[in-house]
Amino acid sequence: MNLLSHPRYQYRFDPKACETCGGRCCTGESGYIWITLAGIEQMAHYLNLDIEQFSIRYLRKVGHRYSLTEKKISQENHACIFFDTNTNRCSVYEVRPNQCRTFPFWEQFQQNHEEVIKECPGIVI
Question: Is the pTM for the entire model greater than 0.70?
Answer without folding.
Answer: yes
